[in-house]
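Posting this for the archive.
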Amino acid sequence: MRCPSCSSSAVLHDTLRGEHICTRCGLVLMERSLELKPEWRRRPGEKLERADVTAGIDVTQHDFGLGSKFSVSKDLPPSWRASLRRMQLWQQRSRANTWEQRSLRGALIELDKLCEDLSLPKGIKAEISIFYRRARAARLTGGRETHQVLAALTFITCRLRGLPRTEGEISRTLTARLGIGNYEASRNLRRLTKFFTQKFKLKLPHISTDDYINRFAVQLEFSTRVIEHANELYRSLPKKFKQTRHPLSLSAAVLYLAAEASGEKVPLKKIGDVTGFAISSISKNAARVRELTTPREG
């Protein structure tokens, strides 16, 4: 780039202001120019890395991630680090200085733990956070256990987004967190799911058996051959039979038969533990599937 005034090629690009300036005569050739290259930054004590170019708003944080944050470098003397950590603690407390903010922060922390237990991605966690904020704004969470509300909203979001997470999995997480019985956890989960579905006017789609087959196959560490054979078995079944069977039980049955046919047989108890279905139901469905898929003689 050359200066149109003095024809000098000594043009400086000021990345901070987005200007191209001639260093010979001082003419500003361009201003407010956009930087199309990736943004990089270097934090104290860390390597050069790509900058976060998102909107900067995180709905999974009680203050949308807009509060000030600072880290304590390991290069500082121990006395300085201790002092800064105390300041960091008080700064975190000051970010939630009202009861409502502290309550919301505690709920979102529990949501983070729940999503970690269920291996849910951040996008799903963000959507659950939005549902929870809507429920609080509509005063639907009062008098209800926070863990149970979050569990119901998690189940609703997973169903809406087609993620194969069962009632049993979420109920077991509630049982571990709250120390209540599995029956009580399942009953409360169904009740709150129905309540929030009606209040938000949602229609929950059913998760297909194919999704459950793929997910349970990964959990049981089956090979690709078993997964393909299980899907073939499922597709070969009559439509009326598939409509009258629970997707969980049917997926467990075809996986059991596919593993048996491929030489990777696993105990029914292990499949029952993973799918959360009774061994007797899986066994009956497996026998029926074997009947329907075995070619008849004559």
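The chain has a mean pLDDT of 85. The chain has three domains: 1-34, 101-199, 209-293.
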